[in-house]
Design goal:
The structure holds 2 protein chains of 2 kinds.
Chain A (H helix, E strand, L loop, with lengths): L2 H25 L2 H17 L1 H7 L2 H19 L25 H11 L2 H12 L4 H8 L3 H18 L9 H8 L1
Helix pairs in contact in A: 1-2, 1-4, 2-4, 5-8, 6-7, 6-8, 7-8
Chain B lengths: L2 H12 L9 H31 L29 H5 L5 E3 L2 E3 L5 E3 L7 E6 L5 E6 L2 E6 L5 E5 L7 E2 L5 E5 L4 E6 L6 E6 L9 E7 L7 E6 L4 E5 L4 E3 L7 E5 L6 E4 L11 E5 L4 E6 L4 E4 L6 E3 L2 E2 L2 E2 L2 E4 L5 E5 L5 E10 L2 E8 L6 E8 L6 E8 L10 E2 L2
Antiparallel strand pairs in B: 1-2, 1-30, 2-3, 4-5, 5-6, 6-7, 8-9, 9-10, 10-11, 12-13, 13-14, 14-15, 16-17, 17-18, 18-19, 20-21, 21-24, 22-23, 24-25, 26-27, 27-28, 28-29
The chains are: A mainly alpha, B mainly beta.
């Protein structure tokens, strides 16, 4: 194995689980997430020498994933057009029943427009700053702020009052 | 609700997917594929420019390309279906558990795993066209279910013509390939639908007949809009009154069901009916997304959803007024649908609860009558997974 491949293999080992998580949050579907991840890693591999020298590999691969996801989503416009290639047999996704805040968050994320969804994933999962998110997505910081704010507002609206610690329901309970 | 809620719950949700699925070899394999496509895209773009420079393209709604030089010799015809009347009965076929059931009820075994099938089409000569994930590509089966040919593709997707006489896909170099009912070998066009980089474009519709002689037209685009008209020997820009994507063509070819691009903050755009001859939008509906015409062209289906799941299916008339909104029972979603005939839908429904929810195939009259269970319920994977019942396009 060359030094280049050894470096890349080490990166795969260290970062792949986290990148798979990003892909899953962006796509909301395990198969699409795997396809997105494999394509993004392949593009990273093709540019590895240049990227490795410049550093900040994570930023580069995040950008690939977001851009590629937009492309995949366009392809998936038709019903069964899920462009998965050889999908390996993996540990299955456990979509455990969750009737609470987790379900509300997921519902909000899944119904967001594609770009707003990317904002939420990068801000709240990858915990990038507003400026980093704006730079990666090629949008203004103001747009990042407004889309984050809308997502939070949607979450408040859709969360059952008894699960929302800031809701009037709880305040009433406390007053009693 | 705070930002911390998002942080915590997204972390928890992402934890549902585990591991590192791809080895270095997996990544290098995909990288080689990308490199091949990049090289082919460059070559294809050059060829398309040359072709466009010397050929005047044809009209929108098909008809032979009279300006095409030296049409290819006629292709040999295929052996007709053992049951032509069965194959020609308008309506969708259904693949389930290795058996294809045609609209007239006749069946044929098909050696494919339903989970590996992305799309299914049945030509009027009885041949069965499968876009699959494993193997990744397009497979063509004879009317009696024997594998006839396999085709490498840029994207494992097919588009059928409204009358099921044509099936089209993109080969590995993004060139358009059309398989025509009654013609043994597919016709490969000179041009294709490459997008910038290595991505294949969308095949939105295929029209016409006698493809080997230049009589067919494929409409393609960038998945948001239909931008290109591809004939046997030339590509040209498609001009429409406003940006739109063709979702379906009426059986008589006189109307296109279209979708309009979504706004920046919208998940879905409006839909409409487009008169290609006049260049006019003749009806518009912003409450659903149009998908398919009924076999008689009188009605259309519409639906909206995400992650290949749908809360309901609408049937609309030629004014795009809803005549039926079919919603599955409580705790169920629609997974797939098609036209059984001009008066009935075939609808696949699946439960949302549990690890092995029930899947059923229903026959739903569009006059509002009670649905009839055609098959199921059978336990299967969760609703996000590939459908247990594949309804042909």
């Amino acid at each position: 194995m060359t030094d280049r491949d050894a470096d890349f293999t080490a990166y795969l080992g260290a970062r792949q689980p986290r990148l798979l998580g990003i892909a899953y949050l962006l796509t909301g579907d395990r198969h699409q997430a795997e396809d997105l991840l494999q394509t993004s890693l392949a593009k990273l591999y093709l540019s590895w020498d240049n990227i490795r020298e410049r550093g900040n590999v994570d930023a580069y691969v995040r950008r690939i994933m977001v851009n590629e996801n937009n492309s995949l989503w366009r392809r998936s416009w038709r019903r069964r057009e899920v462009p998965t290639d050889q999908v390996p047999d993996l540990t299955p996704v456990h979509d455990s029943p969750d009737e609470g805040v987790g379900a509300a968050v997921w519902e909000v994320v899944q119904t967001l427009p594609r770009k707003a969804r990317a904002v939420v994933v990068l801000r709240y999962y990858e915990q990038l700053t507003e400026a980093e998110t704006a730079d990666l997505l090629g949008i203004s910081v103001g747009t990042v702020k407004s889309q984050s704010s809308r997502a939070l507002a949607a979450l408040r609206e859709r969360t059952p009052p008894e699960l929302n610690p800031n809701s009037p329901h709880d305040e009433r309970e406390e007053e009693r | 609700m705070t930002e911390e809620t998002f942080v915590r719950e997204l972390e928890r949700r992402a934890d549902h997917v585990h591991g590192a699925p791809f080895s270095l070899d997996d990544v290098r394999g995909r990288a080689r594929s990308i490199q091949r496509r990049r090289r082919a895209a460059v070559a294809g773009a050059v060829a398309a420019v040359v072709a466009a420079a010397i050929i005047v393209p044809t009209a929108l709604v098909g008809g032979p390309d009279r300006t095409s030089p030296d049409p290819a010799p006629p292709s040999p015809t295929v052996t007709p279906s053992p049951s032509p009347s069965a194959a020609e009965t308008p309506g969708a076929s259904v693949l389930h558990d290795g058996v294809l059931t045609r609209p007239d009820g006749s069946t044929v075994p098909l050696d494919v795993d339903t989970a590996d099938v992305q799309q299914l089409g049945v030509l009027t000569d009885g041949r069965i066209v499968v876009a699959g994930t494993r193997p990744y590509g397009v497979q063509v089966y004879s009317p009696d279910g024997e594998l006839e040919s396999e085709h490498e593709v840029a994207l494992n997707a097919i588009t059928m013509s409204a009358d099921d006489t044509l099936a089209t896909w993109l080969d590995e170099t993004f060139r358009v390939v059309v398989l025509e009912s009654g013609v043994a070998e597919p016709t490969t066009f000179d041009g294709g639908i490459p997008m910038p980089g290595e991505s294949p474009g969308s095949l939105d519709a295929v029209l016409g007949s006698d493809c080997a002689a230049g009589g067919c037209t494929v409409l393609g685009g960038d998945y948001a809009t239909t931008t290109t008209e591809v004939t046997l020997t030339a590509n040209r820009d498609l001009e429409t009154s406003e940006p739109l994507r063709v979702a379906a063509v009426s059986p008589d070819g006189e109307r296109w069901a279209v979708t309009f691009p979504a706004g920046e903050s919208e998940q879905f755009g409006c839909s409409g009916l487009y008169d290609p001859a006049a260049g006019d939008v003749v009806a518009r509906n912003c409450d659903t997304t149009l998908w398919s015409y009924s076999p008689d062209g009188v009605h259309l289906t519409g639906a909206r959803g995400d992650n290949t799941m749908w809360g309901s299916v609408e049937v609309l008339d030629e004014d795009l007024d809803v005549v039926l909104s079919y919603e599955p029972g409580a705790g169920q979603v629609v997974k797939d649908w098609g036209w059984a005939d001009a008066e009935h839908l075939l609808v696949v429904v699946v439960g949302l609860d549990g690890e092995s929810p029930d899947w059923s195939l229903l026959r739903v009259p569009i006059d509002g009558g009670d649905p009839e269970v055609v098959a199921g319920p059978v336990p299967g994977p969760n609703a996000e997974m590939p459908s247990l019942f594949i309804v042909s396009d």
